[in-house]
């Protein structure tokens, strides 16, 4: 490798970090992205590839080493006892085949995959004590989130009391249904207010509003998909855990499916790529998880994400929507 290669990589890494930091700020803090997710993802992967090629250029403040956003002032901070992680990404079938190979190198045990819709909202944590909702928080930067308990209480599908007096922490996605998003933007346009680029940003702005009455107007909803603290619960697999969440009265997404092979997983991603426009909420991909908890434990985590899960992201259809919506707003 020549010095010139290294110097030009260093400059490009610097430029990419500056750009990605700006985009993250607009997306996570302002809830108003200026570029489509696919564009962000492309630059992010260029940065990750350069850092892999030139490990000396990796630094702890790089966007590749961080999770999510910043905490808004005005909200009480909540420390997540178990960090709320991100997910690695896959963009095509060969990425999924590589994922399958990596897992099979890490375990000899037989296992299955569970596929879930990747709901395009923001991650939240709900804490129950003796069956009562005591706290809700955003993911924030993964370690520290915002206390949004009063806001989550306005989401009608979130049970304030579980069907069993368990002390558990459940995590999932808070989102805005497409119909509510269209209605909200129509109203905002009529009132001469800035419109939201997409339902995800409208949901984030609604949930992270200091006035819970404003949150209530957004008609937000949730799908819960993971357990942060099992409390009295025991489960052997993701499928088992989700079924038990259903029994507690917690809303989960029922389009999940279990498969034995990565080829079947790929077919499922393609099926929902077709169906996504018919769903009443936005999805931006499919999350694929090793189903059996024993195998998940063996496969483990990186600092940023579980090794036993990956998010397959749909191709850039949404890019057009976002760009069109932004143009439409000017
Ligand atoms: P991610 O969106 O790639 O995936 C992780 C998240 O998926 C989880 O945190 C969870 O919130 C969500 N999720 C939804 N359904 C799930 C399910 N069934 N099981 C598990 N998780 C589920 O990662 P991220 O860290 O939340 O966000 C990074 C992404 O945000 C980028 O890839 C990019 O697309 C977007 N982004 C866009 C901009 C922009 O300017 N357009 C800026 C920053 C980030």
Automatic annotation (TrEMBL):
The active site is at residue 118. It comes from the Bacteria. NAD(+) binds at residues 37-41, 86-87, 116, 139, 173, 289, 313. DNA ligase that catalyzes the formation of phosphodiester linkages between 5'-phosphoryl and 3'-hydroxyl groups in double-stranded DNA using NAD as a coenzyme and as the energy source for the reaction. It is essential for DNA replication and repair of damaged DNA. Belongs to the NAD-dependent DNA ligase family. LigA subfamily. This is DNA ligase. It comes from Carnobacterium alterfunditum.
């Amino acid at each position: 490798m020549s010095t010139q290669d290294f110097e030009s990589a260093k400059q490009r890494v610097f430029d990419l970090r500056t750009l990605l930091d700006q985009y993250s700020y607009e997306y996570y803090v302002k809830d108003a992205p200026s570029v489509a997710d696919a564009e962000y993802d492309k630059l992010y992967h260029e940065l990750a590839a350069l850092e892999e090629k030139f490990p000396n250029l990796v630094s702890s403040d790089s966007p590749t080493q961080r999770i999510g956003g910043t905490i808004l002032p005005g909200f009480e901070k909540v420390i997540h006892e178990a960090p709320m992680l991100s997910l690695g990404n896959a963009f095509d079938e060969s990425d999924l085949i590589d994922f399958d190979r990596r897992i099979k190198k890490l375990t000899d045990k037989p296992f299955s995959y569970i596929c879930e819709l990747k709901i395009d909202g923001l991650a939240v944590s709900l804490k129950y004590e003796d069956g009562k909702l005591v706290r809700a928080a955003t993911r924030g930067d993964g370690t520290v989130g915002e206390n949004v308990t009063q806001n989550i209480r306005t989401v009608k599908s979130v049970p304030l009391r579980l069907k069993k007096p368990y002390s558990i922490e459940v995590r999932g996605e808070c989102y805005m249904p497409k119909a509510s998003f269209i209605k909200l933007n129509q109203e905002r346009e009529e009132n001469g207010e800035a419109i939201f680029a997409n339902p995800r940003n409208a949901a984030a702005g609604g949930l992270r509003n200091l006035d819970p009455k404003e949150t209530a107007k957004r008609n937000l909803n949730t799908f819960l998909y993971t357990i942060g603290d099992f409390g009295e619960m025991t489960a052997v697999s993701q499928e088992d855990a989700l079924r038990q969440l259903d029994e507690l009265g917690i809303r989960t997404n029922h389009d999940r499916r279990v498969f034995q092979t990565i080829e079947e997983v790929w077919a499922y991603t393609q099926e929902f790529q077709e169906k996504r426009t018919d769903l009443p909420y936005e999805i931006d991909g499919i999350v694929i998880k090793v189903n059996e908890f024993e195998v998940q434990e063996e496969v483990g985590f990186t600092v940023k994400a579980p090794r036993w899960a990956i998010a397959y992201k749909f191709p850039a259809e949404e890019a057009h929507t976002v760009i069109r919506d932004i143009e439409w707003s000017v």
